[in-house]
């Protein structure tokens, strides 16, 4: 960029702004500007349904759709007068605190500029190159003003996004309006008199309101200047101007000098955690340690985070009470990182998470760090080991293609829940299309909420074994976190005992989800995540896997083209992300599709189907790493009423607690009504589950066994010797046809048959000498366990040899067969945000 003439700073910056053209922009700067707009649309859509923007929308009257002075409200079906649209969109864009930053600016440049320039560009029908040129003008000007006044205003309590950001918005809009240097300087004078924003409001809705006001005020300043409104043209450097009143320094040389990279935009930093950027180095440092050293948080005695003055002034909320406050709490975010909690979306539930709150007390801030450099973290363990990390996320990405790919994923995670997959992808492709950038009207037309208020997502409804659930491509859903969880619950119709407004079937076995994607692992074909959606409550659990739903993953992968179909039988290697274990499915295939017809029977499923053979031998220690997590084949649990009950906790497929039915005064042949209406029994089983969990986690509160993060885990089942009984379908199960009876209780209700993972755990426990299961099972066959459950008798394959080392058993066969069938595929609808 040319050296400015020797005039006042305000006018010098105005001359630079007015002179910039699209032809002056290097290709990489254009690409970076487009990436900033890509990120802006994502975070704005994600924030559009949050409380702050919704309050503004409730207060502001809508504009007539045909009013030429109106503009689109992103993520909604409404239009507002242009200034108010800039206000709302600017507020939405900063609401999640997930937007980009620049170290020179000490804040968020894009959100202070983009909302203003897009509203004006839509009204004036600006071209894509004009939009990009205006955006870059605003971005560069904002950074130069920030360098002129230095960091002191920020340290004193001014929020740069609201104060300096107003100049960026004014510069961008003045450039789009084609104002000359004199009129642009006037716009800066008007912007200076409106610039505001206090850090005392960090952690509240008002922080995002700062970005909205910067957009509105900067746009208003440019429009007033265009109309001939007067203002001083030395508003920055005047003795009573912006620099003097904000901080007392006006460094002309710093403002007008070019950065080492040539353009401030080249130093833009995108965010991948929805918290203050000054917390990101710490988060990534802790995650790196957890990945390399596999830290057990129970062994952590203290975490020390070394921070400087800037971090202490912005991110030291000691006990955050809301999701907004969490974003500015180093101690809370450190605990979240240690526990592996997601940070793509942070809400009030994260602030109240009892595990995070407990661990937070072990995090201390040491005031000996250097702001702007690597954040040092020390994690001390009870055994005296101290782990160290020093991480720095403040270096811009040099590989713009890799950055684009990461931003595309971030965009989809934020946009899909609001617009639906089809509309979000259409906007994404326009934003990223090669060639000249798209104009504002084309972009904003796609950023409106779909007509009718409903969004869509591609899905498949499958019956798999004795369960039924929705199957998704991972790419069609938001990234893991609260946004995705809210979408899945909405699709199922939870929380509601009937799930009447969703696709769930009001039973735990029909309120399940499978999320499938191609795997990067050499030993797996697909990654599969299981989710159990609570029915009456607001929880969703990823703590374990579902064996029945797992049997549908192979057919889904074949039919969706995720694996090559091999005629006759296709072997699908499934990496279950919930447990980290590998499952192998042998899927019958005919004419390139998963076969459905066959003669295999699954008790609890009418008719017959094609047999899918599932190998679960690799799932020993699915959650705890050991077949017998307590180290013993049998444990004694003392209940509140003084009773002592013998149990076996066996972790294969999923961890399951097995109890003799007779020890609780039951037969093992009880019906659903007899168990589901027996509150005393259910309370006892919950207590047993909780107390067994506490054996593994000393100090844990057994009453929290139904944590929403893993409802129903560990599972629990009553076992009894073989006997005749009536099945749920009215038929009979004969003693001679089974090795034992089981009544599995899942999410505090009787399972209508037996969970696939529970049958794996039961079969494994039947071969453990001294276990509760072995004490009642006949084990008629060396390689099969015949399980009598409420719907009939199901075989599970198991073959084991004794060994000399605990648990003194080794399995060379562990699995079962199921059938599965695609019931429906297409588009699922759900109400879009707002």
Please give a structural write-up.
The chain contains 26 helices and 27 strands. A hairpin with a 6-residue loop joins strand 10 and strand 11. It is 36% helix and 20% strand. Helix 5 packs antiparallel against helix 6, helix 5 runs parallel beside helix 8 and helix 13 packs parallel to helix 16. The protein has 834 residues and is of the alpha+beta class. The strands form four sheets. It has a 19-stranded mixed β-sheet that branches. A four-stranded mixed β-sheet has the order 4-3-5-6.
Q: What fraction of the residues are assigned to beta strands by DSSP?
A: 15-25%
Structural class call reads: alpha+beta
Backbone CA Rg: 30 Å
Would you count the extended β strands for me?
27
Average pLDDT reading: 92
Assign a percent range to the helix content.
Answer: 25-40%
Silhouette: elongated
| Distance N to C terminus | 43 Å
Which regions are unreliable across 5 or more consecutive residues at pLDDT < 50?
Answer: 1-6
Family: Belongs to the PrpF family.
Keywords: Isomerase
Protein name: PrpF domain-containing protein
InterPro entries: MmgE/PrpD_sf, MmgE/PrpD_sf_1, MmgE/PrpD_sf_2, MmgE_PrpD_C, MmgE_PrpD_N, PrpF-like
Q: What characteristics describe this protein?
A:
19-stranded mixed beta sheet, 27 strands, 20% strand, MmgE_PrpD_C, MmgE_PrpD_N, isomerase, PrpF domain-containing protein, MmgE/PrpD_sf_2
């Amino acid at each position: 960029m040319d050296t400015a003439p020797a005039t006042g700073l305000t006018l010098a910056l105005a001359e630079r702004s007015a002179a910039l053209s699209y032809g002056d922009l290097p290709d990489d700067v254009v690409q970076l500007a487009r990436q900033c707009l890509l990120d802006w649309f994502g975070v704005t859509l994600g924030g559009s349904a949050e409380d702050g923007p919704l309050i503004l929308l409730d207060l502001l009257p809508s504009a007539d759709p045909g009013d030429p002075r109106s503009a689109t409200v992103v993520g909604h079906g409404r239009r507002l007068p242009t200034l108010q649209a800039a206000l709302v969109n600017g507020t939405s864009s900063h609401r999640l605190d997930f937007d980009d930053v620049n170290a020179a600016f000490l804040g968020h440049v894009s959100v202070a500029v983009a909302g203003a320039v897009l509203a004006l560009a839509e009204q004036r029908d600006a071209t894509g190159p004009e939009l990009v040129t205006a955006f870059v003008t605003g971005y560069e000007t904002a950074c130069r003003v920030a360098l002129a006044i230095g960091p002191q205003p920020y340290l004193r309590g001014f929020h740069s996004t609201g104060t300096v950001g107003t100049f960026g918005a004014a510069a961008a809009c003045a450039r789009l309006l084609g104002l000359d240097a004199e009129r642009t300087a006037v716009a800066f004078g008007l912007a200076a008199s409106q610039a505001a924003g206090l850090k005392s409001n960090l952690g509240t809705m008002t922080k995002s309101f700062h970005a909205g006001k910067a957009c509105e005020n900067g746009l208003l300043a440019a429009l007033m200047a265009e109309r001939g409104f007067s203002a001083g043209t030395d508003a920055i450097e005047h003795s009573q101007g912006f620099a003097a009143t904000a901080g007392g320094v006006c460094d002309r040389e710093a403002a007008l000098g070019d950065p080492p990279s040539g353009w401030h935009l080249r130093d833009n930093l995108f965010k991948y955690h929805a918290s203050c950027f000054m917390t990101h180095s710490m988060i990534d440092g802790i995650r790196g340690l957890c990945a390399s050293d596999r830290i057990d948080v129970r062994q952590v005695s203290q975490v020390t985070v070394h921070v400087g003055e800037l971090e202490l002034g912005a991110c030291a909320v000691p006990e955050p009470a809301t999701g907004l406050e969490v974003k500015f709490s180093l101690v809370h975010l450190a605990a979240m990182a240690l526990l592996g909690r997601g940070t793509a979306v942070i809400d009030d539930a994260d602030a109240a998470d009892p595990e995070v709150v407990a661990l937070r007390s072990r995090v201390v801030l040491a005031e000996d760090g250097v702001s702007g450099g690597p954040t040092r973290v020390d994690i001390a363990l009870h055994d005296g080991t101290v782990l160290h990390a020093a991480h720095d996320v403040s270096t811009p990405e040099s590989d713009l293609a890799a950055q684009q790919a990461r931003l595309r994923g971030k965009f989809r995670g934020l946009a899909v829940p609001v617009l639906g997959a089809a509309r979000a992808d259409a906007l994404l492709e326009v934003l990223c299309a090669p060639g000249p950038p798209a104009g504002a009207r084309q972009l904003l037309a796609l950023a409106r909420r779909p007509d009718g208020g409903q969004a869509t997502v591609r899905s498949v409804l499958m019956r798999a074994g004795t369960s039924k659930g929705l199957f998704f491509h991972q790419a069609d859903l938001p990234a893991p976190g609260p946004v995705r969880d809210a979408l899945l619950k909405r699709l199922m119709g939870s929380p509601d005992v009937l799930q009447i407004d969703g696709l769930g079937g009001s039973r735990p076995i029909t309120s399940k989800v499978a999320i499938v994607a191609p795997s990067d692992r050499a030993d797996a074909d697909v990654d599969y995540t299981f989710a159990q959606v609570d029915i009456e409550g607001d929880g969703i659990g990823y703590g374990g896997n579902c064996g029945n739903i797992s049997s549908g993953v192979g057919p889904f992968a074949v039919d969706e083209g995720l694996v090559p179909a091999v005629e006759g039988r296709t072997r699908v290697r499934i990496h279950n992300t919930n447990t980290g274990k590998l499952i192998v499915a042998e899927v019958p295939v005919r004419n390139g599709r998963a076969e459905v017809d066959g003669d295999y029977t699954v008790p609890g499923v009418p008719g017959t189907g094609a047999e899918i053979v599932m190998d679960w031998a690799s799932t020993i220690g699915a959650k705890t790493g050991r077949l017998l997590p307590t180290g013993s084949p049998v444990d004694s649990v003392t209940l509140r009423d003084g009773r002592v009950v013998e149990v076996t906790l066996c972790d294969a497929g999923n961890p399951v607690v097995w109890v003799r039915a007779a020890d609780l005064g039951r037969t093992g042949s009880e019906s659903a009504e007899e168990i589901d209406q027996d509150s005393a029994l259910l309370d006892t089983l919950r207590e047993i589950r909780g107390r067994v969990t506490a054996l593994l986690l000393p100090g844990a509160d057994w009453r929290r066994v139904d944590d929403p993060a893993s409802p129903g885990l560990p599972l629990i089942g009553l076992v009894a010797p073989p006997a005749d009984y009536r099945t749920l379908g009215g038929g009979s199960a004969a003693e001679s046809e089974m090795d034992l009876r089981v009544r599995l209780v899942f999410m505090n209700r009787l399972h209508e048959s037996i969970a696939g993972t529970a049958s794996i755990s039961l079969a494994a426990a039947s071969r453990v000498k001294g276990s509760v299961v072995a004490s009642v099972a006949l084990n008629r066959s060396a390689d099969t366990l015949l399980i009598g459950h409420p719907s009939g008798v199901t075989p599970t394959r198991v073959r084991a040899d004794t060994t000399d080392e605990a648990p003194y058993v080794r399995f060379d066969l562990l699995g079962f067969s199921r059938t599965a069938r695609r019931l429906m595929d297409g588009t699922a609808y759900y109400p879009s945000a707002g």
